[in-house]
């Protein structure tokens, strides 16, 4: 409703089954083939087992001392699902495809010349790695969007403004220099996903210097946040990006149950203004932001801030 109140025109993406070949091509430009094949059939195979649970949860997490691949359904769950926050249910694959369908339509609008499009996706995607689901994310919508935009723009930047580090996006592009990845998030020393998102993660190989993490302490307010966003904007400009993906999370709001920051509703207006000042074709891709009464207003403020520069 917040997007409608901001004056956005609503377009529904086509059902995934009508464009599955296009979606698969876009997905495989980002994700591992075996991982995608697992997601596609995971529930149907799992549900055939006697006494199968209603959702697939891993009960083992392979580590560096375990090197042999095992195709037992329980073993596969541990191999491809990183934590218990990404259970696979009956409609997980179809819902994830729906998110990608929305992203593909949105990127096509940007490539056709529109200045800004908002892809309202669920489930979100920025924790999904190339070959692993985690944190309620299965397919990395923001990464897929960036690769789609690269078909037309030489340099694409991603700014992740979700409360949590965009670890999956970082992992996917860590060795690439044509897609700049930036994440502003709660300090991973104290906050999910704990093992990534630190300032010393710069990228490697061709991607060295093209990954920027800005971790902020618990309780960070608008002033702290806008300073971090200003640093991000400066990096995008120096990168000479031609298009921008904003991995958009509202779990930075002060009362979000999964957040630890202290942003107010009008903070998102200022965030939108700063993003607009970059003067780039911009695709907002929905990430986190959970059910609080102000969620509607926060989304409205972000869009109005972008529009009113």
UniProtKB/TrEMBL annotation:
Organism: Nostoc favosum CHAB5714
UniProt protein name: Histone deacetylase family protein
Gene3D superfamilies referenced in this protein's UniProt entry, alphabetically: Histone deacetylase domain
Database matches in SUPFAM superfamilies: Arginase/deacetylase
Similarity field: Belongs to the histone deacetylase family.
Lineage, top ranks: Bacteria, Bacillati, Cyanobacteriota, Cyanophyceae, Nostocales
PANTHER family from the UniProt entry: HISTONE DEACETYLASE 8, HISTONE DEACETYLASE HDAC1-RELATED
InterPro entries in alphabetical order: HDACs, His_deacetylse_dom, His_deacetylse_dom_sf, Ureohydrolase_dom_sf
Keyword terms: Hydrolase, Metal-binding, Zinc
Residues in Histone deacetylase domain copies: 24-304
Cofactor (UniProt): Zn(2+)
């Amino acid at each position: 409703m917040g997007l409608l109140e901001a004056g956005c025109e609503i377009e529904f993406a086509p059902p995934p089954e009508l464009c599955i070949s296009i979606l698969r091509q876009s997905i495989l430009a980002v994700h591992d083939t075996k991982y995608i094949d697992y997601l596609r059939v995971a529930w149907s195979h799992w549900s055939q087992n006697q006494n199968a649970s209603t959702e697939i949860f891993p009960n083992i997490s392979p580590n560096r001392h375990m090197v042999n691949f095992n195709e037992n359904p329980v073993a596969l769950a541990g191999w491809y699902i990183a934590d218990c926050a990404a259970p696979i249910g009956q409609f997980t694959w179809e819902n994830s495809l729906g998110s990608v369908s929305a992203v593909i339509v949105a990127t096509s609008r940007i490539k056709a010349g529109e200045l800004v499009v908002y892809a309202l996706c669920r489930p979100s995607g920025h924790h999904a790695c190339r070959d692993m689901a985690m944190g309620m994310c299965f397919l990395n919508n923001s990464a897929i969007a960036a690769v789609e935009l690269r078909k037309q723009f030489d340099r694409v930047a991603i700014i992740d403004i979700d409360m949590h580090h965009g670890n999956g996006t970082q992992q996917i592009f860590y060795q690439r220099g044509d897609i700049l990845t930036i994440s502003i998030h709660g300090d991973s020393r104290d906050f999910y996903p704990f093992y990534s998102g630190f300032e010393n993660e710069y990228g490697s190989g061709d991607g060295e210097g093209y990954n920027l993490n800005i971790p902020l302490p618990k309780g960070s307010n608008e002033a702290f946040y806008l300073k971090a966003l200003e640093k991000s904007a400066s990096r995008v400009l120096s990168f000479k990006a031609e298009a921008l993906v904003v991995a958009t999370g509202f779990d930075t709001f002060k009362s979000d149950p999964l957040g630890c920051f202290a942003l107010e509703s009008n903070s998102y207006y200022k965030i939108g203004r700063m993003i607009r000042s970059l003067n780039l074709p911009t695709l907002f891709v929905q990430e986190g932001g959970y059910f609080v009464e102000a969620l509607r207003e926060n989304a409205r403020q972000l869009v109005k801030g972008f529009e009113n520069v």
